[in-house]
Design brief:
It comes from Novipirellula caenicola. This protein has 2 domains: 113 residues, 3-Layer(aba) Sandwich (Rossmann fold); 165 residues, Rossmann fold (3-Layer(aba) Sandwich), CATH 3.40.50.12370. With 313 residues, the chain is of the alpha/beta class. The two termini are 38 Å apart. About 6% of the residues have low confidence. The protein is 41% helix and 19% strand. The protein has a 10-stranded mixed beta sheet with strand order 3-2-1-4-5-10-9-6-7-8, sandwiched between helices.
Length: 313
């Protein structure tokens, strides 16, 4: 698998080495450069200095230096890997600083551990949530209980999509999941949920017979979309197990992931900005806190991060 050229691993305060180990391994496989990043809080400008000589900016530089030394110590065991490694310590909001580094250094993969227990009780904290929404490159979030190689990779796609960009996203998801499955010698599964929009209300207004025909047509449309995504003979060298179910996407994907005991899910996520950005508005954002597997989330081509948009204003 040689799909990534510039990988960023966010360390933060997490002592779990899963993300770092995975990032180094991916960098070796892809012959890629690796950025190891931490982000610290800025020193308040009005903080009282003990010696009355050290300015807040100087104290900030000292803190950055100390964190850089800590990163160097953590990287000592990987010194003989021959992977080009850069250490970066930013100050400010972690997600924002990560995305700025992604944009500036043209990073094509961010990898980090899940944040730990969130206020909702899931393994999905604020940094991971923000990256899913706003990071322009793929984000690989590792659940801490997942170790070693992945045995079962699950690609989640949307076969109801008609837009070319969304269809391209489906193809990207499948190709990336296939590449990882081949690299890990893992089983590859594909899950897609489908349904008839507003089926319940339509049945009340149009009757079961008419809506049943509409459901049948929708099922045929979804099946054609699947055949176009996976044409006969294209992936015969790697058997893909298909899970195509009618129902709510979040429930279907979560159920299949649990049933097959997936280690990694590859899926798309689309950012929502403005007022609606405060809402949990997409399937990836909705289900991740309840998944027991890691997630690799990718954006559609041409996605612009709100961080990029803000920088242009």
């Amino acid at each position: 698998m040689k799909r990534f050229k510039r990988i960023l691993c966010y360390i933060g305060t997490d002592v779990n080495e899963a993300a770092l180990s995975r990032a180094v391994s991916l960098a070796i496989q892809n012959e890629a450069s690796l950025t190891i990043m931490d982000v610290i809080k800025p020193v308040p400008k009005g903080i009282a200095m003990v010696d009355h000589e050290t300015e807040a900016d100087e104290l900030q530089r000292i803190m950055v230096h100390d964190h850089e030394q800590a990163l160097l110590a953590r990287m000592a065991e990987y010194a003989d890997t021959a992977v080009p490694i850069e250490l970066v310590v930013g100050t400010g909001d972690p997600a924002t600083e990560i995305i700025r580094q992604v944009i500036m250094a043209e990073i094509d993969l961010v990898i980090k551990n899940a944040d730990g227990a969130s206020a909702l009780g899931g393994m999905f904290g604020s940094v991971a949530r923000s990256l899913l929404r706003m990071c322009p490159c793929p984000v690989w979030l590792l659940k801490p209980e997942i170790h070693g190689q992945f045995d079962r990779v699950l690609a989640a796609i949307d076969l109801d999509a008609d837009e070319p960009d969304h269809q391209k996203l489906n193809q990207d998801i499948l190709e990336l999941a296939l590449s990882i499955a081949q690299s890990e010698q893992a089983q590859l599964h594909l899950v897609a949920a489908w349904g008839l929009w507003m089926e319940g209300p339509l049945r009340k207004r149009m009757g079961d017979e008419t809506v049943d025909q509409m459901v049948t047509l929708q099922q045929m449309k979804v099946r054609r979309s699947l055949d176009e995504l996976i044409p006969h003979g294209r992936y015969d060298d790697h058997r893909i197990q298909i899970h195509l179910h009618q129902g709510d996407p979040s429930e279907v994907i979560r159920s299949v992931a649990d049933t097959i005991e997936a280690d990694l899910m590859v899926m798309g996520t689309v950012c929502r900005t403005g007022v609606s950005g405060a809402l949990v508005g997409n399937t990836a954002d909705t289900i991740f806190s309840e998944l027991s597997c890691s997630m690799l989330a990718i954006k559609p081509a041409g996605f612009l991060s709100p961080v990029q948009i803000a920088a242009r204003v």
